[in-house]
Amino acid sequence: MSYPELHAWTLDPEQAARVQIALRTQIVLAWLQGKTVSTIGGVDVGLAQAMARAAIVVLRYPDLVPLEGVTAQSPLIFPYVPGLLAFREGPAILAAWDKLHDKPDVLMFDGQGIAHPRGIGIASQMGLWLGRPSIGVAKSRLYGRHAPPGPQRGDWVELYDERDKGRVIGAVLRTRENVNPLYISPGHLIDLPMCIEFVMRCCTRYRLPEPTRWAHRVAGGETLPVETGQMSLFGD
């Protein structure tokens, strides 16, 4: 185990919301200037019956060559409650993290960062647990208000807090021309401009960035294609 124990997982939803409120004061929304990034990890979780199956895929950066992928399962002990996703999926993510040989420099999560009613989505909460710069890459809006982004690849508009109307909590980013945008928000140890830069550099032919796109597929049972000798894939 290579992370601090920030809270228990066996909480009820009211207790979990209070934990989030306490934890959000620890979030750092700044990028360490000069930080070297040679690997990016994608994190996604699939659900089957009463189990969560987390996948973490590590890609070399910036050429996005797959290096390693791991999966791990844990029982679903927390109910589905919007805004409390980390409590449902976090234990499986930590189990997968423990299997990685080399921890990535930056993490992308299929979910929200600070674009969240309490300002701490799964990318923020797990970023605190893992001590890595983390980015929320969500396919739909959970919280916030925004104007429509332009139709071209790279067009984006600011996502604003619904209660603090001048506060920017993310970006609505078009990663492919005339395709539905993504909702990008900082998780921890990163700012919004760097989030947008990493996501755009990791989007090649598809709407989703390669780290989370491959994590989703591996969580669903696919094998990650890699160059010989560059990858280890550990299952459950």
Q: Short summary of the structure?
A:
The protein contains five helices and nine strands. By secondary structure, the protein is of the alpha/beta class.
Gross geometry: globular
Total count of strands = 9
CATH class: Alpha Beta
Roughly what percent helix? 10-25%
What does the largest sheet look like?
A: 9 strands, mixed
What is CATH's topology name?
Answer: archaeoglobus fulgidus dsm 4304 fold
Supply the number of helical segments.
Answer: 5
Low-confidence stretches: 228-232
Topology:
Blueprint: H1 13-23, E1 39-48, E2 51-60, E3 66-75, H2 85-99, E4 106-109, H3 122-130, E5 134-138, E6 156-160, E7 168-173, E8 182-188, H4 192-202, H5 210-219, E9 232-234
Parallel strand pairs: 1-4, 3-9, 4-5
Antiparallel strand pairs: 1-2, 2-3, 5-8, 6-7, 7-8
Helix pairs in contact: 2-3
Describe the structure.
By secondary structure, this protein is α/β, with parallel strands linked by helices. The protein has one domain (13-22, 38-223): archaeoglobus fulgidus dsm 4304 fold. It is 24% helix and 25% strand. The chain is built from 5 helices and 9 strands. The protein has helices at residues 13-23, 85-99, 122-130, 192-202, 210-219, and strands at 39-48, 51-60, 66-75, 106-109, 134-138, 156-160, 168-173, 182-188, 232-234. A hairpin with a 5-residue loop joins β2 (51-60) and β3 (66-75). The chain starts with 12 loop residues before the first helix and ends with a strand. 46% of the residues are buried.
